[in-house]
Structure formats: C-alpha cells, structure tokens
Design brief:
The complex is a heterodimer of chains A (about 110) and B (about 110). Chain A has about 110 residues and is an all-beta fold. In chain A, the strands form 2 sheets. In chain A, strands 2, 4, 5, 6, 9, 10 and 11 form a 7-stranded mixed β-sheet that branches. Chain A has a 4-stranded antiparallel β-sheet with strand order 1-3-8-7, with no helix packed on it. Chain A starts with a strand and ends with a strand. Chain B is built from no helices and 11 strands. In chain B, the strands form 2 sheets. In chain B, strands 2, 4, 5, 9, 10 and 11 form a 6-stranded mixed β-sheet that branches. Chain B has a 5-stranded antiparallel β-sheet with strand order 1-3-8-7-6, with no helix packed on it. The termini of chain B are far apart. The relative contact order of chain B is 0.33. Classes of the chains: A mainly beta (about 110), B mainly beta (about 110). Chains A and B meet through strand 5, strand 9 and strand 10 of A and strand 5 and strand 9 of B.
C-alpha cells in the first residue's frame, strides 16, 4: 500500500497563476483533508471532506477550492496564486468513526509563489 | 470551539535527558492522537489514547490521557537525536468530520 500520495512535491508559481494539487489514498478511508503549514507553525485546515460527495471549509479556505473526485482522490485548486499562499501543503485521510480520527498524511507539496 | 494548547512550544535538550510535553484543553475529547513530524516530512501517527487515565508505551515514549479526558502528556526517557521533531497532539471535533490540532512542541535533541 502506498498510503497517501501527493503530486507534485515541489512547485514554483508566479502571482496570478493557477494550479491543482493532487492527493490520493489507497486505505479506503472515508474522510480526507487539506492542510497548510507555514514555517515553524502547526497545521491549519483548509478544506475537508467527511465522505465522498461532501466538502466543507476549514479555518483558512479563502483562495482555495477543492474537489472530492471519488473516494480515493481529493484535489486542491489555487485559482489565482498569491505570495501569501507560499507554504507546505499536506493531504491526509482517516477513517473517522467512533470518536477516533487517526489521520495519515502524505509527504507534502512545497509551493512557492513569487 | 475545542482548542488544544501544547507546552512548551520549544524544547532543546542533550541526548540522554528525560522530558515531558503537554497537551491541554478545557474541553473533553473522545480520544487524543499524538503525531511526530520530522523536518521535510508529513506528520506520522504515534499513538491514540481513548480511555481516561490510560497509559500507553511505545519504546521510550510514554503517553498518558488525563482522567477527565481533557489533557494528555508525552514523556520521553533517555532522549536520542532521532527523537528530534515537531510533536503534535490532536483530537476529534464533536459532531464534525475533522480534528483540532495543537500548535505543537518543537523538540531538539543535541548529541
């Protein structure tokens, strides 16, 4: 099992460009998440999908859109990148049930917006 | 809003020392998870504690869940340089398909 995979691993964008970050999991998890992590800081939730066909905003959704394509895949789109979106982006998945949300994270995408 | 506060924010120690980091909340959590994140990588799940008062051991790491399920601690015995990283605690939000994460404790173990 590959677990959670993310592409690309690194990306440099110019202000105003768009891109989509891809995430896939092979653990048959129902929930998937997108986080951003800025230097020296913890994780901030951008969007999440509690189940296939649903998405909800996290604490920092502005400037982002998501698509839960199927149970395996959850993509994050930046329509018009801004320097403030320079960060490391992590995708995670979990089988969220019975009061336990054990999340499994991908290796991250390091994005720089100039 | 359920919040998790972690302390200390930064900790720098010598190899061989013992340490304890804390994860505190005013809210009750059904469970708490601990993760370790090494530089340049994603967080990795270490353990889940579910029952109030529960103690779990993972080699030199000891995790405890408070009796009231509002707090947790992580104790490392005889720290090694390989323990260096960011330690995060997290717990499920009530009635929501997401978790609350603490801001983490950055541990540096010097040789």
């Amino acid at each position: 099992n590959a677990g959670v995979t993310q592409t690309p691993k690194f990306q440099v964008l110019k202000t105003g460009q768009s891109m989509t970050l891809q995430c896939a999991q092979d653990m048959n998890h129902n929930s998937m998440y997108w986080y951003r992590q800025d230097p020296g800081m913890g994780l901030r939730l951008i969007y999440y999908s509690a189940s296939e066909g649903t998405t909800d905003k996290g604490e920092v959704p502005n400037g982002y859109n998501v698509s839960r394509l199927n149970k395996r895949e959850f993509s994050l789109r930046l329509e018009s990148a801004a320097p403030s979106q320079t960060s490391v982006y992590f995708c995670a998945s979990s089988f969220a049930g019975q009061g336990v949300h054990e999340q499994y994270f991908g290796p991250g995408t390091r994005l720089t917006v100039t | 809003t359920q919040l998790l506060e972690q302390s200390p924010q930064f900790l720098s120690i010598q190899e061989g020392e013992n340490l304890t980091v804390y994860c505190n909340s005013s809210s009750v959590f059904s469970s708490l998870q601990w993760y370790r994140q090494e530089p340049g990588e994603g967080p990795v799940l270490l353990v889940t504690v579910v029952t109030g008062g529960e103690v779990k051991k993972l080699k030199r790491l000891t995790f405890q869940f408070g009796d009231a399920r509002k707090d947790s601690s992580l104790h490392i015995t005889a720290a090694q340089t390989g323990d260096t990283g960011l330690y995060l605690c997290a717990g499920p939000n009530t009635n929501a398909g997401k978790s609350t994460f603490g801001d983490g404790t950055t541990l540096t173990v010097k040789p």
